[in-house]
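WARN  no MSA supplied for this record, continuing single-sequence
INFO  ligand: NAP
INFO  echoing inputs
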Amino acid sequence: MKILVSGSTGLIGSALVSFLRSQGYEVARLMRERSVRDEQTVYWDIPSGTVETGKLEGLDAVVHLTGVNLGAGRWTVKKKTAFHESRVKATRVLSDAIAGLERPPGVFVSASAVGYYGNRGNEVLYEDSPSGTGFLADLCRQWEDATKPAAAKGIRVVTTRMGVVLSLRGGALAKLLPIFRLGIGGTVGSGDQYMSWIGIDDLVLAFHLCLINENVDGPVNMVAPNPVTNAEFTRTLARVCRRPAVFPVPVWLLKILFGEMAEETLLSSARVLPGKLHDSGFTFRFPELHEALEYVLK
Ligand SMILES: NC(=O)c1ccc[n+]([C@@H]2O[C@H](COP(=O)([O-])OP(=O)(O)OC[C@H]3O[C@@H](n4cnc5c(N)ncnc54)[C@H](OP(=O)(O)O)[C@@H]3O)[C@@H](O)[C@H]2O)c1
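INFO  complex generated
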């Protein structure tokens, strides 16, 4: 199988490329920086919508993982445009490019997020649950919709609605860990908001399943089967770090510091379950949060 990966320099992309190569797959990278010139590198320019389409003929699969980091500070108008361009526009450009090929890939696996569901309290959410409201839910809907040209061409399209990915190399856990290790961690707001999470190793295996299982298509919730409230997450992380976590972060402070970003990520509740992964027979290596954290932090 020859697989093209975009966003291959990122947290998820780099783990996925290493795994796929270790399993003997031929992996090419879709890159924005023209620093490397080899057969395994394909270039694209998202603003102008150009892709080296000649190099896309004959691929078996495309995995698409770009997106400007949503969790780095307040969301300005400029940042929101960048979130949109690097997700919705990028997906449209790539989807159009593969749909226009003479020999298109069999499968297009494209990133999305549990932000699709919005802020939903205790409601249990599966792939067929309706989308929510807010900037992130709108973004995720448009991001998923941008894969339609590929689906219309008959390519199997999977959109991966990922929860918070647990890894030491980046993302939320890498930011929280120094705080918890100092013993100054604590719940965020009421702590009642649900957080859907997945360990990076399980995530990579779930992507692999989507690539090879021809029965999987459409949205797939990529989350562990045991989402937790923020209070449970805080207690578990503190226990694994062997530190207290007694410094709650008040809502008013988060809103002053981070505004809409805080409301839509840190304070938002999404209790998402992996319906399609379960139906496909996927076995989680780390279904429980404490196991996932102990493994990642060991
Ligand atoms: N990590 C999580 O917990 C999580 C959870 C849910 C969803 N996701 C989504 O999954 C995707 C990958 O996540 P990640 O954690 O691997 O992200 P990441 O580490 O921030 O990497 C994202 C990649 O996107 C590309 N990128 C950065 N800025 C860009 C821009 N202005 N235009 C186009 N591409 C740009 C870069 O790849 P190149 O330089 O190679 O192009 C970068 O390596 C993102 O869309 C993210 O929102 C992540």
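The longest helix spans residues 77-99.
INFO  checksum written, moving to next record
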